[in-house]
Amino acid sequence: MKSVIIYSGGLDSTVLLYHLHAAGTEIAALSVNYGQRHAREIDCARKNCAALGIEHREADLRTLAPLLGDNSLTDPNTAVPKGHYTEATMKATVVPNRNMIMLSVAAGWAISQKADNVAYAAHSGDHAIYPDCRREFADALDAAIQLADWHAVKLYRPFVDWTKADIAKRGSELGIPFADTWSCYEGGEKHCGRCGTCIERREAFYLAEVDDPTPYEADAPSVEELVAQFWRLS
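^ that's the sequence the OP posted. Answer follows.
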């Protein structure tokens, strides 16, 4: 099987990269720079692909950033909200149609490579605030991609029924260098430990009972505090 993987350099997609590699899949990895403030995640993607000897390409779509509104990922004037993904403020992190943009580019490359599928690390914890993370969206896009060329390419989501803790546990089994992954939307020198994706990352390690090697900012709350807050919000 040959897969073109959407590879951000984050926790989920890095586990997917190693998961497919361990299964003997032929892999080509695509990272997309769409003007995100945390583009340093792509540095992690380069490093992990080099370690595994996997072909890695980067699509430079930074000119799209001004077209994507005042979300906190592509607009430097919009602050990254802090807190759990269950909070309404997290809507500021929505980049309009981001998954379709990235998957469309990956599908074009996959078709040209006669690959079997485009793989991405969608999982059961992907959130209602992200419309393009819904199963209905992915199913519709899968059907469209298969109709895009005479060579049918499918959308592959092996983690779709997994939790993020399940993904962290699988990463531990595979011996993934978790320190060489990036999640924080702030894109600073260290993970802030307070934004939605940092909190989700920390809780995943905690619930999976996997050591978290990530350096966080000194003022970040403890993971125990974050988990307790999550249950209060639920």
